[in-house]
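As a warm-up, study this chain.
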Amino acid sequence: MEPPLWHATRIRVRYKDTDQMGVVYYGNYFTFFEVARSELMRDRGFAYATLERQGYRLAVIEAEARYLGNVGYDHEIKVYCRALFPGRARVRFEYAVFDDAGRRLVTGHTLHACITPQGRVGRLPAELIAGLGPEEAQAEA
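Now compare it with the structure written out below.
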């Protein structure tokens, strides 16, 4: 089942993503989260590279994953991602990972603080908030 109002990124599991048991190594889901987060930003017209060129950084201050299932080599997964804004200087990305049969494998989130060009925690650029968050997602924060 596809989560509403979320961006979907397809990823094919590579052999290097798996562990000795033949399934995706648990830490690699955070890499999949990063891919989905970058694709969400790019798709919404505000690529992370653009943010960096403006001097901003999004520092991870919290990360969490809950493992519900697993998948092995050469399977296609879908990583769903959305952005919520719990404050003026933070953005929370939420993730849900499904296998090619539609089974939910992992849920999680990362919380990021906005680091300004001056190197301090500060407000997120307005263009980022406007580009990433549908009004419904912002209201949930």
